[in-house]
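Suppose you are handed a protein chain with no further information: no name, no annotation, nothing but its sequence. What can you learn? This example shows the usual starting point.
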Amino acid sequence: MRTRRSTDAVVEVILDSILKGDIQPGDKLPSAQRLGAMIGTSFVSTREALKGLETIGLIEISHGRGMFLSRDPLS
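A reasonable first move is to predict its three-dimensional structure. Written in C-alpha cells, the prediction is:
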C-alpha cells in the first residue's frame, strides 16, 4: 500500500475545491502557512505543492500580493 505524501494532500484539497466551485478563477487562496494548518501539512510540504501547482499554471503566486487561482485553471 502506498503512503500518501503531504504534497499530494495539498494538491487534492485545492483540486477538490476547484471542482466543487468553492474557489473560482481569480480568487485569492489562503497563505501557505494557513493552508498547511487547515490541511494538517507542514509549511514546507504545502509550499512545495503550491510551487508545483504554479509550475503547471493552476495557480499564480504574486510575491507581496498572495496566491490566486489562475483565470483559466482547468483548460
